[in-house]
Amino acid sequence: MGIKELEAKIKEKVNQQLEKQNSEANQVLAEIAAVFNQKKNGLDKTFQTESRKEVDLLIKKELIPAKLKSKSMLLSTKRNLINQVYEEAKKQFTATSGKEYKTIIKQLLKANPLKGKVEIIPCQANEKDTKVALEEAAKSAKLEITWSDPTPTISGGFIAKQGLIDFDYSFDTYFKTIRKTLEDEIIKLLFKS
Asked: pTM for the full model?
């Protein structure tokens, strides 16, 4: 699974969840409005014109907190949705192995190329695939790789060291970058209603 396909999956999942959440929120608001309209109609029949104004104010006072609570619930649901979508995508992404994993490693290196001597610290979970992918990429990228012990602190990818500089090619960092990049667009989709 490439980067573009992953981004497309994330957007598709967000749109599906957004439609579901908007539908549920609209249904709740419709039910609330129906109850209050029913109460209002019943009260309107029993009170005189002056009393009706007072009743309308009371209904509005009750309706405003209900609408605020509904919007607050919807906002919380949308925030949770964003977090769930990213966590699920990250989980699927970090579960890759073999050829697909090697392709991702090569794409990460291609997006931010290295040259010369570099020390590589692979993730422990995919150490073998990381080494194979980077050895293949090293031939065309003119890299001289030395290997350090793998680290269990990253869920996929690797850390590259050149002198005093560390380059973080871990999946954790990659997903933080994707989230920052796509978050504005996803928030606009979720919160436009």
From this structure: 0.60
